[in-house]
Write a structure and sequence with these properties.
The protein is α+β, with helices and mostly antiparallel strands and 485 residues long. Helix content is 43%, strand content 18%. The protein is globular.
Length: 485
């Protein structure tokens, strides 16, 4: 009786969800190689022209005073073809722009200026583009906070390139090409249910993802349970005249074989996908404060320290290295210009002294231990560990690991090139680290860093899950036809 009930529930959940499982598995392959289009600060820097030292008239301390911010909250970059000091945008306030050549603030972004920003991004005239104002989220602005950045102008060129410019900030907030949009349709969009009518309604989208993945977990678990129950180690069944452990033939036989082989990964795949939505309040990520450690690393902050070597002189110190952006930081009370140069590299130009490409990692480690009175124990890592890893290799190495000395497991990772915290791990978030990222992406320390081994294993699991889903679809079609006849 119990077995019949389990089979009944599994069968009808399979009828309802078999197509979704096929989409999840196949789009999971797309997710491995095709990201959702987005524009990062690094993308903006890659397309920014180098800073012109001769045009910079205003000092960082003057800009900080005019904008009523700390100097470390500023960055000097190009805006509309001119050097400008900028503050970062927050949820409460938009970023501000102060031109470094005249000291005047930037007012609202005009349509003419937006046209020039879009044209500069891809090197084509705005007159060749179809232009429209984005009033509601479309497929490519679902992750863009339009309320804070609007109005947003969309420029679409005949070659398939699309540029979205915020008239609030003057930034390019989205950029897509025909190939990046195709990749998104092969991976993230179907995998995340990122269709505009659904995703633009966040509460509904959240419920749909949680319920479908939750029911998918139950369906897969029941399938494994039924398969194990039906399996006969003693080969009590007959197939084509020979003893066998499985009582079925045809698609049912393939379904149970694939289910026994791939069923447990299917359970963890659906369950970890549900966890990505943080369905349980106690499972939400907690981000520890970094203020104390950042203050300890910076030491005394004094805006006037940059007057000893103004930005124009700091740029000259870089020689042939053309900086696209300057940031202003302190390490142990000493002022440094952090120059981001072509190629994505960074250089440190001290207010007094010669440029260096990085701080000494051992010095950072000693500074952390000393300045926190031993509450953090720091050491240098030259390779990724189980909480600090990136299969694309974008996270910097070497890195300074600062661990809480009380054994709590709190970990901070500090980039020696900037003396800034680049990653945090709070033990309260172990569920997200292992039950979501570990199970869903297989970013396991012994596997994640080894390619193409990781690719081959994940591809095998995705293709196996896809084959299992195909047998489910065939069997579901038969069940529905029987019900209709």
């Amino acid at each position: 009786m119990v077995k019949r009930a389990l089979v009944f529930v599994h069968r009808w959940l399979g009828v309802a969800l078999c197509l979704l499982f096929l989409v999840w598995f196949l789009s999971g392959i797309g997710m491995m190689y095709f990201p959702m289009p987005e524009v990062t600060d690094a993308d903006r820097l890659d397309r920014a022209p180098p800073l012109d030292a001769s045009a910079i008239r205003m000092s960082p301390s003057e800009a900080a005073a005019a904008l009523a911010v700390d100097v470390t909250q500023l960055r000097l970059t190009n805006f509309a073809g001119r050097p400008a000091y900028r503050t970062a945008a927050t949820r409460a306030a938009r970023g501000r722009v102060l031109y470094a050549d005249t000291g005047e603030p930037q007012g609202p972004i005009s349509r003419t200026m937006a046209d020039a920003i879009a044209a500069r991004w891809i090197g084509q005239p705005a007159s060749a583009a179809r232009v429209e104002e984005v009033l509601e989220p479309d497929q490519w602005t679902l992750q863009v906070p339009l309320a804070a950045l609007g109005p947003v102008m969309k420029y679409a060129w005949p070659n398939g390139e699309q540029v979205y410019v915020s008239q609030a900030s003057g930034d390019v907030v989205q950029y897509t090409t025909a190939s990046s949009r195709l990749g998104a349709y092969l991976g993230p969009i179907p995998h995340w249910f990122y269709v505009t009518p659904l995703r633009s309604r966040s509460p509904l989208w959240n419920r749909v993802v949680v319920w479908t993945s939750g029911l998918g977990t139950i369906a897969a678990a029941l399938g494994v349970l039924v398969g194990v129950w039906m399996y006969s180690p003693s080969k009590a069944y007959r197939h084509r005249g020979l003893p066998t452990s499985i009582p079925y033939v045809g698609q049912k036989r393939w379904h149970i074989i694939l289910g026994l082989a791939i069923g447990v990964p299917a359970i963890t795949y659906a369950f970890s996908g549900m966890l990505s939505m943080e369905p349980f309040p106690s499972w939400e990520d907690r981000r520890p404060s970094t203020d104390a450690l950042e203050r300890a690393l910076a030491g005394r902050v004094e805006s006037a320290a940059f007057d000893h070597r103004p930005p124009a002189e700091a740029l000259a110190q870089l020689g042939d290295r053309r900086a696209r952006q300057l940031e202003f930081l302190f390490f142990r009370g000493h002022a440094f210009h952090l120059a981001r140069v072509e190629g994505g590299n960074t250089w440190l130009v001290p207010a007094k002294g010669n440029p260096v490409d990085t701080f000494d990692p051992s010095e950072i480690a000693r500074a952390v231990t000393a300045s926190t009175n031993g509450q953090l124990a720091a050491r240098v890592l030259n390779q990724y560990d189980r909480y600090y890893l990136d299969r694309h290799g974008r996270l910097p190495l070497p890195v300074v690991l600062a661990e809480a000395a009380d054994g709590s497991g709190l970990r901070y990772y500090i980039d020696p090139a900037t003396a800034r915290i680049v990653r945090i791990f709070d033990p309260a978030n172990w569920k997200t680290r292992w039950l979501y990222h570990g199970l869903h992406s297989l970013d396991l320390p012994w596997l994640y860093a080894y390619r193409p081994l990781w690719d081959l294993i994940v591809l095998a699991l995705m293709l196996g899950g896809g084959a299992l889903s195909v047998t489910s679809i065939v069997l579901a079609t038969r069940v529905v036809r029987r019900r209709q006849s």
